[in-house]
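Marked as duplicate of an earlier ticket. Keeping the data here for the record.
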Amino acid sequence: MKKVVFAAVGAVGALVLGLLLVVAAVLGMTMSFEQPRSNLAKVPEEFRRWIAKAAAACEHPEVSESLLAAQLKQESGFRTGQVMSPAGAGGPAQFLAGTYETYGRDEDGNGVSSRFDTGDAVMAQGRMMCSLVGQAKKSGYPGGPVALALAGYNAGWGAVQQYSGVPPYAETQNYVKVITASQKDFESGGEDVQLVASGGGTNGAALKRAAGRLGTPYAYGGGTPGGPSRGFCDGANGYRDGRCLASQTVGFDCSSLTQYAYWPSLQLPRTAAAQYGATSDRPVSRDRLEPGDLMFWSRDGSQSGIYHVALYAGGDRVLHAPRTGRDVEIVDIADAMPAREYMGATRP
């Protein structure tokens, strides 16, 4: 009896769907059934097309753009160049040399296959994750293909086989937990994307360009109009826990990010104080702020005391590079810097 009922329901459902398609055709409409799209606004620009290409190249839908982005964030924080771990893993996707030989190709066409080249590394990451997800599906081990694949990436598939699931290693279990939890940060529908999409003109374009660097590490003294670069310490800035973090970090500081955002349509000077001086003839009150406006904070209320600049992102939020140890982010204005030190805003 149940089979007959289910068959009838299925037939009715098919008939309804068919009628909907006919109506859509008559009205000139299209119908599609899509999974939620990824949101790579928090991913540096040089990674985006490679992430999209790597995800598209895998037949397993679990290897999505959001998964690869979350994994890269955990592996290297989207750092590029000669990034090395104490264990000898290198590049944006943190490959051991031997493992990279298996999955690496010269994807960017520069004549060299290298785990330190962004395109080569991301495509190799996607290729390896695709292989691991395939093995996970065939294994029958508990935990799900994504968790098993991530565990295999971190600890090796042999460890997954040894324990018939995610190995009981603290590092591996944390690795799986962090990436699967942060994957949602790279999926569509986020508030940050809605905010940065609201601006138009030169200012709006600057905000959108800066949004392409969300998640990039803060590096005091780092950053150029062309993108992130290694920072430096000056005796007072760039340190964390007593060590010079800036000299080991490729990223932006607050004013290099705003300079990068407006370049080359508007060539702002390098420091926050100089940027205020270059735009102070166009002040903007708090109730008149528009996306892309520059906001400044000063220790003593003077131009010489200005120490921070941020881009207004709409909705009483700012997009900025906050401080050593943090990443480029969008936060409420109240949480950006001390309210008492807010000096004012300008419109470039």
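See parent ticket for discussion. Residues 1-37 have pLDDT under 50 and may be disordered.
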